[in-house]
Amino acid sequence: MQEFLEKLQAALGPDVVQTEAADIEPWLSDWRGVYKGQAQAVVRPVSTEQVAQCMRLCSQYKVPVVTRGGNTGLCGAATPDARPDNIILSLDRMNQIRSIDTIANTLVADAGCILGNLRRAAQEQDRLLPLSLAAEDSSQIGGNVATNAGGVNVVRYGMARELVLGIEAVLPDGEIFNGLQTLRKDNTGYDLKQLLIGSEGTLGVITGVALRLHAPTHVRSVVLAAVESEQQALELFRLVFGACGPRLQAFEFFTDACLDLVLTHVEGVQLPFGDRHPAYVLIELADTANEEALTQLLEEVIGQALEQELCVDAAVSASLAQLQALWRLREEISEAQRADGPHLKHDISLPIEQIPAFVKTAEVQLRKVSPDCRLFIFGHFGDGNLHYNVSRPAGADKSWAAEWEIRIADAVFEEVMAYGGSISAEHGIGQLKRHAFLHHKDPLQLKLMRQIKQVFDPDGIMNPGKVL
Q1: 13, 39, 65, 342: least surrounded by Cβ within 10 Å?
Q2: How far apart are CA 301 and CA 293, in angstroms?
């Protein structure tokens, strides 16, 4: 290892290659403190060529590489395993916007750019980068693309994959994949960038991304609707989608248990209604102009919903402050869960029409495993993504989560697969779901994935212990 480190430092410089234990220590854990590994160095390049130099040496010496973005992932994909010869490759210094084109409506950026900064840069040019998630002010676009991030706007704009026009990446042998085209149409063979999107750093290192921009939606209107059940939420979605079409920007769902957590652990939030209800749906419409017409449309649709008994109460935002206050009830759920203690998080997706049935039968199966566990269900209902989270029974020790994790996950995932769903909607596989992924994934698909992995990374140095 010493010879490798000497050559690496000679090629990139000691300011790029950090080998002191104190410098490496902060990079060894995920932000939740669930995973911790080892590494012999942290490499922080400033250019794609430096990444290529690093990868050529890693390939020569068969050194495993873990690419790290903003460390906001929930599945341990950017945390090294226990091998002492790992290197951590951080792209945080590669954080420049390369171009913004308001004619072609594209943005090209280094992989280390913070997502929130890119969204603000697009806004300054009167354009919208619609990828939006809770960690956007610390997550990096390279990691967002490597995990095919989702967020709150998927119902309108799709996952990260739908926003990517091109990718620049360094392959395990140090070759540079020059795929940063911004073309909307290119039918010249296989779309190789798609293999890198969602690959979680197991096929190469994404160093640059070309993204599509959209027209800005300056006008927004939000309503919080109280519902009696997931079935009622489903029928409400059917009505709203049919009436509002592409103006529907978000359709979020959370149960009263989630609201109770927020009210308990988050300051400055208030009950949205005089009475409590089993669940709530937060609906946002957005358009390029005419706020009055948008609000009128939303009020008309919610009026129809109340008449048709598709919700039992509703509160429409009348100002920006009210809009933000309603969104806080949904956005603060994760922080409230953190304050409550360890939660077993299951980021799942289902055919939307199957969500009501799944919620009922999944609870039955979970009660067989742990009768008194607490369920906290919320998520992006409009695109079929639920965060189906389970916590310890009231009064139980916080060690409950670690003791029951496998049994709870097995019960949840078996039920997900029975409904034709996926065990990972937007958080990826990483270390957390690797066993379940290998168990539930179609054998032929696994075979093809392993063959692709062999083509890209024959020595298996890219993010070992993750996904496959």
Answers
A1: 13
A2: 12
Count other C-beta atoms under 10 Å from residue 116's C-beta.
Answer: 16
pLDDT at site 320:
87
- Residues 369 and 396 placed together within one structural domain of the fold: yes
How many domains does the chain fold into? 4
Each residue of 84-108: pLDDT tens digit? 999 999 999 999 999 999 999 999 9
Reported as a single tens digit per residue, the pLDDT across 173-223 is 999 999 999 999 999 999 999 999 999 999 999 999 999 999 999 899 999
In angstroms, the CA 129 to CA 185 distance is 20
Stretches in the chain below the pLDDT threshold 50: none
| Whether residues 174 and 208 fall in one domain | yes
Please tell me the pTM assigned to this model.
Answer: 0.92
Domain at 42, CATH number: 3.30.43.10
Q: What is the CATH number of the domain that holds 277?
A: 3.30.70.2190
Q: Are 467 and 203 in contact (CB under 8 A)?
A: no
Gap between the Cα atoms of 25 and 160, Å rounded: 31
Q: Number of C-alpha atoms within 13 angstroms, CB side, residue 347? A: 17
| Closest residue by Cα to residue 107 from 3, 217, 210 | 210
Tokens standing for residue 264: 């308990």
Quick one: pLDDT at residue 291? Answer: 85
Helical axes 333-340 vs 256-265, angle rounded to 10°? 70
Q: Is residue 45 part of a domain?
A: yes
The pLDDT value given to residue 330: 94
* Domain containing residue 386: 341-427
The reported pLDDT for the residue numbered 90 is: 97
CA pair distance 339, 54, nearest whole angstrom: 40
Are residue 249 and residue 347 in the same domain, yes or no? no
